C-alpha cells in the first residue's frame, strides 16, 4: 500500500483487516494482527475483534478483547453488554451476573434503545 499508492495505512485500514479476519472465523490471526501492528491499537480495533468473538462464540478471546477496550474506554457500556452477551450465549450465567454487577459498580449505564415507526 505504501509502495504502490504512497498511502500510509491508518486505524480504519487495520480495523478492516481485523474485521475481514474476524468474519472469516480467523480470530486468533486477528488478535495476532492487532498485537503486532506498527501502531498502538485503539478501542475500535479491539471492539472489532470483540464483535467477531460474539459471532463465533469465542468467550476467551472475547474476554481479552473486552478487557483491552475497557482499558482504553472504561465508560463504554456496549463493551460490558457485548461481553455479557458472549457469556450468556455459552451459558456462563455466573459470569454474566459478575459483569453486570461490575457495570453497576463503575456507574456505567446502558442507554435503552428506541425507534420511531
From TrEMBL:
Keywords attached to this entry: Repeat
PROSITE patterns: PPR
Placement of PPR repeats on the sequence: 76-110
GO CC terms in record: cytoplasm
UniProt keyword annotation of Repeat present: yes
Family statement drawn from the similarity comment of this UniProt entry: Belongs to the PPR family. PCMP-E subfamily.
Protein's UniProt name: Pentatricopeptide repeat-containing protein
